UniProtKB/TrEMBL annotation, chain A:
SUPFAM superfamilies xrefs: ACT-like (SSF55021), P-loop containing nucleoside triphosphate hydrolases (SSF52540)
UniProt-listed GO biological process terms: amino acid transport
UniProt-listed Pfam families: ABC_tran, NIL
Name of the protein in question: ATP-binding cassette domain-containing protein
The UniProt record lists the keyword Cell membrane: yes
Keywords: Amino-acid transport, ATP-binding, Cell membrane, Membrane, Nucleotide-binding, Translocase, Transport
Domain ABC transporter: 2-241
Taxonomy, superkingdom: Bacteria
MF (Gene Ontology): ATP binding; ATP hydrolysis activity
From TrEMBL, chain B:
UniProt-listed SUPFAM superfamilies: MetI-like
GO CC terms of this entry: plasma membrane
Pfam family, one: BPD_transp_1
Membrane topology label: Multi-pass membrane protein
GO biological process terms held by the UniProt record: D-methionine transmembrane transport
Name this polypeptide is given: ABC transporter permease
UniProt keyword terms in alphabetical order: Cell membrane, Membrane, Transmembrane, Transmembrane helix, Transport
UniProt key word Cell membrane: yes
InterPro entries assigned to the protein according to its UniProt record, in alphabetical order: AA_ABC_Transporter_Permease, MetI-like, MetI-like_sf
Domain ABC transmembrane type-1: 14-208
PROSITE patterns assigned to the protein according to its UniProt record, in alphabetical order: ABC_TM1
Amino acid sequence: MIQIEKLRKTYRGRGRELTAVDGVDLSVREGEIFGVLGRSGAGKSTLLRCVNLLERPDEGRIEVAGRDLLALSGGELRAARQGIGMIHQHFGLLSSRTVAGNVAFPLEVMGVPRAERAARVDELLDLVGLTEHAGAYPAQISGGQKQRVGIARALAGRPKVLLSDEATSALDPETTASILALLRDLRDRLGLTVLLITHEMDVVKRICDSAAIMRDGRVVESGTVRELLLRPGSELARDLFPLPAADVRPGTTVVDVTFEGDAADRPFVSSLARTYAIDVNILGGAVEEVGGTRIGRLRIELPGDPDLNAAQLAHLREAGLTVEVHPSPGTEVAA
Amino acid sequence: MTWDEIWPLLRQGTVETLQMTVWATMITAVAGVLLGLALVVTDRRGLAPLPAVHHLLGLVVNVGRSIPFIILLVALLPLTRALVGTTIGTTAAIVPLAISAIPFYARLVETSLREVDPGVVDAAHAMGASRVQIAGKVLLREARPGLLAGLTVTFVALIGYSAMAGAIGGGGLGDIAIRYGYQRFENSVMVAVVAVIVVLVQIVQLLGDRLVRRLSHR
Ligand SMILES: Nc1ncnc2c1ncn2[C@@H]1O[C@H](COP(=O)(O)OP(=O)(O)OP(=O)(O)O)[C@@H](O)[C@H]1O
Ligand SMILES: [Mg+2]
């Protein structure tokens, strides 16, 4: 649904140059919720703003719903933007218009006749549960309600794609949860494709099917959330299951084991201990529900250096687990 | 002078003052909004960046604002004659009043337009709004309370300036204060005129504030 190829965007100003997006390839499938994560300044907003050409990239290709955006003329681009909804961290509502007036705004921009507009506004307000607040001004409603107005407004042109830049960052956890639930529900009902930016792991955990992590303008990791969590060395896994810094004592092997689904139900720790007659220490762990399956991570400690534990590690891998060995002092890194 | 003599003077002066200032304010409102909008739109980060035009407009506004009104009054005599056919009287005074107020109000307009949340402008771009739509439906609409508050300030300033219009036979309250109060030492006329001006300013400010409050939903 969204195809981004070799995208590059450099900001130039007063002799300084900053490449905010540096050769990004990204592919978002139809109907999926795709999250982009990364530190402040990584280039997430710039990337997102390139998708509807609010920022014009220096190089690359952007295709949304099969249309090459960079090939469009000014008028064609405005028409294309009407088919791409966008929601904003600070909502971007007109303070001089009521809730209904704000939702009507994109319809006016599109030239929808007045009579049709009113009916469509009612429909949209119903969709986000704001019918009762139609006559209120933005200053009179809560942050969560403002974002619902933002969402209703973004959906006015019946878009196939919804872009979201930190849409829940200004909201408290409870409101965030309700907005995320609404986004997922809308995706299911309207078949939307959602590209969202967030710095909250919780957002990824709750609604994203796929994710990418950006650093210094590049995508360093991307794939389905499940793939990323099971991939050894994944930053996403490390951030989602924060385990304390590994303190590997000499003569021991510290292993992070990631498991999902049925593997989570099998007692692999006791099976390991029994099979090899060893003591297994559990150092930490967490289990999370991600995209309908349970994925967990456990940090365990085995006696003996990693090279003495080859059979034990193989045993874990055979059980369908993802195994990551921490390098111990004085030992070469073993995979 | 008796009250019966003062009263018709005051009535006539008030009518003339209002004639000058209301017309000048209306002309200033239209021209000032256009000029202020042009300043914002042609800015480097505006809707239609045209730095050369922006700097030229800025220069014109600054020059207009630095000329003292009394000098403008005289300097504009040829223009006034060309526009209204005469250089004396209430109608003639409207020209210098408006021309001195336009750059002043344009700066107030510019400030109000700059205060519009850039996030809203951004959102409008994302919706596919055209620049004309953004200027009209976002910038001017969102800035309406500020535009009106600025116009109130301008109106009040024009009431003050209109007193000087007496110098070219513009009439009005200021003219009466000078001719009777100052030149003929009729203190009662002076006091009455000042009282009327104070009341006028109060009413304008009150109405302006009330309207601003009604338009503002922040
Ligand atoms: N309009 C601009 N002009 C110049 N530099 C910019 C502009 N917008 C962004 N940048 C720079 O580009 C880099 C990437 O910015 P961007 O806003 O895309 O980051 P981000 O990942 O969204 O960060 P955050 O999480 O703080 O929102 C930053 O170093 C930023 O300072
Ligand atoms: Mg950002």
